[in-house]
C-alpha cells in the first residue's frame, strides 16, 4: 500500500538561494508529525510545496501514490490535503458563522448553488456544531476581523478540516497565541484531528508543544531534513539540539512537566 | 422569499407601472431609461461585491441595444420577448468568450481590460457604414405576442416590460446574493487563497458573475434601444460605462434595490442639472458624486441601513 504522502528528492530554489533540497519524507494515516527548524530552514517552503501553493523546482510529491506536481491549491485540496496558515486566511469582513457556511458550501456540498439560501436552518445547526467542537461557538455572529488571534486560528483550522482531509498541514498553529492559551488551542485542534484519523503535520517553534503532541519529528536545517524520527529521539539528538533547538533540552524534565499539564488540562 | 413579500413586491410593481403610465411622457421615458440602466448597474454591483469594477459594461449594453435594433430593422422581428432573449443570448455568448481571458485579472487590470473590449466594439461600430457609423440607426417599435401598439403605446409597453423585468430580476438577484454563489463573491473579494483551499474555483465564481452581469447589461441596452427608438456607438463608449460605475457608487452595493433607486435618482439629477446649467451640468454631477463619496462612502443605501439600525436599537 502506498504512503499517504511521499516526497521524492524535493527541491525548491529561488534564484541562487536553495530554500529546500533533498527532501524525502513519508507519512502515513494517523501519524502526528511536528516540523521544527529555525527561520529560513525550509519548513514553510516544504508545506507550501506539498499544498500546491508553490511548485518544487525538482522532485516529486505523491499523495496516495499519485503525483500532485503542477496541481493548483484547489486540486491539491480536492486530493485530500488540507492546510491552515501561519496568518489565518479567512473572510475577514464576514462573521464566523458566514465563514463556516461558505466553507460548508465549498468543502462539503461542493455545489455552487445559485438560488438555494446559504443560511438554511439545517446548515446553520451543522455550522454551530463544528464551532462548538472547536469551542468558538460564542463568536458565531462576530465579524472575523474583530476577533483575537487564537479564535481566528481555530476557525482557520476548523474550516480546513471540514473537507475531512486525509492529510492536514498546520503552519505554526500556535504563533501569535498567548502562552497560556497554546495548550488549550492545541488540545482542541488535536482532539478534532484525532477524531478524523487524518495524518497531521504541524510546524512549530515551541518545543514543549512539539514534545506534547507529536509522535514523530522532522527537523529542518538549511533547507534539508536534518533528522526524522520519534519525537524523543530527534529532540535528544545533539546536532538537533545545537542547530535547531539552539539550547540543551532536558527531555526528562519536559516530559514530566508536560504530562503534568496534560493531566491538568484533561481533568 | 416569503409569499407575503412576493405579494407586496407584486403590488409594488403594479403601483410603479401605474405611476409610470400616469407620468408625463418625458418623465416616463426617463423612468424607463433608468430601469434599463438600473439593470446594467445591478450586474455591475454583482461584480463589485466580488471586488471587481468593470469599466466595460457599455460593451454588453451596446450589444443588447444593437441586437434589438438589427432585429427590428433588418430582420423584421419586433416581438419584445424574442428581442430580449436574442440580446441576452448574443451578449452571454460574447461574455463567455471574453470572460475566459478577463476573469483571470483583478483590480485595475480587470477594469482596463473590460474597458478595452468595449472600446474595440465602439471602434468597430464607428467604422461600420452599414450600421450607421457614428450616427447609429433607428429602432422600430416593438410588439408583444402579436399585438402591435401605436407609437405612444409602444413606449408604455417597454415601460411595463422594464418594470416587470426589474421586479423579477431584482427578486432573483436578491435570492442569488443569499446563496453560496452570492456569498462566494464576497469570499473572492476577501480571500481568494482560502476559497481555493476550500476546494472552490475562484475563476468559476468570477466567470459566472461576469456572464450574469453581461446578460443584465444586454437587457438594459435592449430596454434603452426600444424606448428611445435609436442606437449609436456612444453606448459602447467608455463614458457610458463610467456612468454605470457612477450610479453603482451612488447607490452602493448593499442591496439589489440600491442600483435601481440610484439609476432613477441619477437620471433625475442629470435632467435637472442640464436644465439648470446646460454648459456645466457635468460639474453638478461631479459635486454630487463627491458629496456621496465623502459623506456616504457606502452609497445612498447606507441611509436605509442607518435607519434600519436605528429602528432595531429602539426596538431592543
Automatic annotation (TrEMBL), chain A:
<dbReference type="InterPro" id="IPR003593">
    <property type="entry name" value="AAA+_ATPase"/>
</dbReference>
<dbReference type="Pfam" id="PF00005">
    <property type="entry name" value="ABC_tran"/>
</dbReference>
<dbReference type="GO" id="GO:0015192">
    <property type="term" value="F:L-phenylalanine transmembrane transporter activity"/>
</dbReference>
<dbReference type="InterPro" id="IPR003439">
    <property type="entry name" value="ABC_transporter-like_ATP-bd"/>
</dbReference>
<dbReference type="GO" id="GO:1903805">
    <property type="term" value="P:L-valine import across plasma membrane"/>
</dbReference>
<dbReference type="GO" id="GO:0015808">
    <property type="term" value="P:L-alanine transport"/>
</dbReference>
<dbReference type="InterPro" id="IPR027417">
    <property type="entry name" value="P-loop_NTPase"/>
</dbReference>
<dbReference type="GO" id="GO:0005886">
    <property type="term" value="C:plasma membrane"/>
</dbReference>
<keyword id="KW-0547">Nucleotide-binding</keyword>
<dbReference type="GO" id="GO:0015188">
    <property type="term" value="F:L-isoleucine transmembrane transporter activity"/>
</dbReference>
<dbReference type="GO" id="GO:0042941">
    <property type="term" value="P:D-alanine transmembrane transport"/>
</dbReference>
<dbReference type="GO" id="GO:1903806">
    <property type="term" value="P:L-isoleucine import across plasma membrane"/>
</dbReference>
<dbReference type="GO" id="GO:0016887">
    <property type="term" value="F:ATP hydrolysis activity"/>
</dbReference>
<protein>
    <submittedName>
        <fullName>ATP-binding cassette domain-containing protein</fullName>
    </submittedName>
</protein>
<dbReference type="InterPro" id="IPR051120">
    <property type="entry name" value="ABC_AA/LPS_Transport"/>
</dbReference>
<keyword id="KW-0813">Transport</keyword>
<dbReference type="GO" id="GO:0005304">
    <property type="term" value="F:L-valine transmembrane transporter activity"/>
</dbReference>
<keyword id="KW-0067">ATP-binding</keyword>
<feature type="domain" description="ABC transporter">
    <location>
        <begin position="5"/>
        <end position="247"/>
    </location>
</feature>
<dbReference type="GO" id="GO:0005524">
    <property type="term" value="F:ATP binding"/>
</dbReference>
Automatic annotation (TrEMBL), chain B:
<feature type="transmembrane region" description="Helical">
    <location>
        <begin position="244"/>
        <end position="269"/>
    </location>
</feature>
<feature type="transmembrane region" description="Helical">
    <location>
        <begin position="281"/>
        <end position="304"/>
    </location>
</feature>
<keyword id="KW-1133">Transmembrane helix</keyword>
<dbReference type="InterPro" id="IPR001851">
    <property type="entry name" value="ABC_transp_permease"/>
</dbReference>
<protein>
    <submittedName>
        <fullName>Branched-chain amino acid ABC transporter permease</fullName>
    </submittedName>
</protein>
<keyword id="KW-1003">Cell membrane</keyword>
<dbReference type="GO" id="GO:0005886">
    <property type="term" value="C:plasma membrane"/>
</dbReference>
<feature type="transmembrane region" description="Helical">
    <location>
        <begin position="108"/>
        <end position="125"/>
    </location>
</feature>
<feature type="transmembrane region" description="Helical">
    <location>
        <begin position="157"/>
        <end position="177"/>
    </location>
</feature>
<dbReference type="Pfam" id="PF02653">
    <property type="entry name" value="BPD_transp_2"/>
</dbReference>
<feature type="transmembrane region" description="Helical">
    <location>
        <begin position="28"/>
        <end position="47"/>
    </location>
</feature>
<dbReference type="InterPro" id="IPR043428">
    <property type="entry name" value="LivM-like"/>
</dbReference>
<dbReference type="GO" id="GO:0015658">
    <property type="term" value="F:branched-chain amino acid transmembrane transporter activity"/>
</dbReference>
<keyword id="KW-0812">Transmembrane</keyword>
<feature type="transmembrane region" description="Helical">
    <location>
        <begin position="59"/>
        <end position="75"/>
    </location>
</feature>
<feature type="transmembrane region" description="Helical">
    <location>
        <begin position="81"/>
        <end position="101"/>
    </location>
</feature>
<keyword id="KW-0472">Membrane</keyword>
Amino acid at each position: 500500500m502506498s504512503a499517504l504522502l511521499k516526497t521524492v528528492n524535493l527541491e525548491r530554489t529561488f534564484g541562487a538561494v536553495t530554500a529546500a533540497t533533498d527532501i524525502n519524507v513519508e507519512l502515513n494515516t494517523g501519524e502526528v508529525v511536528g516540523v521544527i527548524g529555525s527561520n529560513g530552514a525550509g519548513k514553510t517552503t516544504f508545506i507550501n510545496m506539498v499544498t500546491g501553493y508553490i511548485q518544487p523546482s525538482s522532485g516529486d510529491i505523491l499523495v496516495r501514490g499519485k503525483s500532485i506536481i503542477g496541481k493548483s491549491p484547489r486540486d491539491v485540496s480536492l486530493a485530500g490535503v488540507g492546510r491552515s496558515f501561519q496568518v489565518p486566511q479567512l473572510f475577514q469582513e464576514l462573521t464566523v458563522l458566514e465563514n463556516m457556511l461558505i466553507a460548508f458550501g465549498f468543502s462539503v456540498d461542493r455545489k455552487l448553488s445559485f438560488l438555494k439560501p446559504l443560511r438554511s436552518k439545517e446548515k446553520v445547526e451543522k455550522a454551530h456544531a463544528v464551532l462548538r467542537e472547536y469551542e468558538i461557538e460564542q463568536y458565531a455572529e462576530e465579524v472575523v476581523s474583530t476577533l483575537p488571534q487564537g479564535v481566528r486560528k481555530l476557525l482557520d483550522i476548523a474550516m480546513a478540516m471540514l473537507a475531512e482531509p486525509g492529510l492536514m498541514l498546520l503552519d505554526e498553529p500556535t504563533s501569535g497565541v498567548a502562552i497560556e492559551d497554546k495548550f488549550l488551542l492545541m488540545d482542541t485542534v488535536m482532539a478534532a484531528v484525532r477524531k478524523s484519523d487524518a495524518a497531521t503535520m504541524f510546524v512549530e517553534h515551541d518545543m514543549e508543544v512539539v514534545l506534547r503532541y507529536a509522535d514523530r519529528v522532522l527537523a529542518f536545517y538549511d533547507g534539508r531534513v536534518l533528522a526524522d524520527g520519534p519525537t524523543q529521539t530527534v529532540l535528544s539528538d545533539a546536532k538537533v539540539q545545537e542547530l535547531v533547538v539552539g539550547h540543551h533540552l532536558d527531555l526528562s524534565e519536559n516530559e514530566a512537566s508536560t504530562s503534568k499539564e496534560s493531566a491538568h488540562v484533561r481533568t | 422569499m416569503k409569499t407575503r413579500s412576493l405579494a407586496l413586491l407584486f403590488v409594488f410593481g403594479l403601483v410603479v407601472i401605474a405611476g409610470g403610465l400616469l407620468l408625463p411622457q418625458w418623465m416616463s421615458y426617463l423612468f424607463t431609461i433608468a430601469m434599463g440602466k438600473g439593470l446594467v448597474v445591478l450586474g455591475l454591483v454583482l461584480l463589485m461585491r466580488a471586488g471587481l469594477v468593470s469599466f466595460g459594461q457599455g460593451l454588453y449594453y451596446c450589444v443588447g441595444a444593437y441586437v434589438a435594433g438589427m432585429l427590428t430593422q433588418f430582420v423584421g422581428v419586433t416581438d419584445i420577448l424574442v428581442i430580449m432573449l436574442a440580446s441576452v443570448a448574443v451578449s452571454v455568448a460574447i461574455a463567455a468568450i471574453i470572460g475566459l481571458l478577463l476573469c483571470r485579472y483583478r483590480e485595475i487590470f480587470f477594469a482596463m481590460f473590460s474597458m478595452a473590449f468595449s472600446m474595440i466594439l465602439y471602434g468597430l461600430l464607428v467604422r461600420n457604414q452599414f450600421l450607421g457609423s457614428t450616427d447609429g440607426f433607428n429602432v422600430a417599435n416593438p410588439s408583444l405576442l402579436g399585438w402591435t401598439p401605436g407609437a405612444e403605446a409602444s413606449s408604455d409597453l417597454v415601460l411595463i416590460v422594464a418594470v416587470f423585468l426589474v421586479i423579477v430580476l431584482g427578486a432573483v438577484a436578491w435570492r442569488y446574493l443569499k446563496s453560496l454563489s452570492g456569498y462566494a463573491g464576497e469570499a473572492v473579494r476577501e480571500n481568494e487563497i482560502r476559497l481555493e483551499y476550500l476546494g472552490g474555483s475562484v475563476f468559476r465564481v468570477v466567470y459566472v458573475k461576469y456572464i450574469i452581469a453581461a446578460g443584465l447589461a444586454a437587457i438594459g441596452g435592449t430596454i434603452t434601444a426600444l424606448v428611445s427608438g435609436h442606437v449609436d456607438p456612444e453606448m459602447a463608449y467608455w463614458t457610458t460605462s463610467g456612468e454605470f460605475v457612477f450610479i453603482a457608487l451612488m447607490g452602493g452595493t448593499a442591496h439589489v434595490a440600491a442600483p435601481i433607486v440610484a439609476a432613477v435618482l441619477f437620471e433625475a439629477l442629470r435632467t435637472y442639472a442640464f436644465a439648470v446649467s446646460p454648459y456645466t451640468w457635468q460639474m453638478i454631477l461631479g459635486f454630487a458624486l463627491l458629496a456621496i463619496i465623502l459623506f456616504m462612502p457606502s452609497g445612498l443605501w447606507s441611509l436605509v441601513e442607518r435607519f434600519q439600525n436605528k429602528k432595531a436599537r429602539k426596538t431592543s
